[in-house]
Fold this protein.
Amino acid sequence: MKHLVDAREERHFQDMSLLHALGWRAAYRDSIPADYMSREITDGRWTPVFRQNYQEGVYHGLLLYEGDTPLCCATYGPARVDQPAGGAICNFSSPDLAAWGELISLYGRPDRWGQGHGSIVMKEVLRRLGAAGYPGCFLYVLRENDRARRFYEKHGFAWDGHSLEVALSEETRLTDLRYCKTF
């Protein structure tokens, strides 16, 4: 039986990180060099981030499970505003949408794509952001990820013309597009 869980335990943070890594490897295998993927996109790469998000209570994790198997996850919360780039690959700050909610990430198991798991998680995230009083939601999606862009468009998101460069390395530069949806 499928059920949604708020990420609060170490296992949840690890499952979210694994889903991110699996998603990156499947979605970007033709866009991102293999050496970068094997070096940077490890199963546990994002575990500390999700743990910190929970501890700080600003950004929330949501997982969809079937039994003990994680199927899909999302990170969401208030818009990232005046966020220093620090060691990040780009600066996701969106001060023009400071009052909005943001879907920071949404990843599903690639071997289960197309089964509606992303839609279940997306609908719940949008419901929660709307209930929290945000006027809309935005997200960033790599231009190179056609599948994800179609998914977000299916859920009422549209590119607002804003983009930013994602520098993975000197040789690999991708473009993130900002997609928005009002409630």
Observations:
- Residues 33 and 171 are 9 Å apart (CA to CA).
- The longest helix spans residues 10-27.
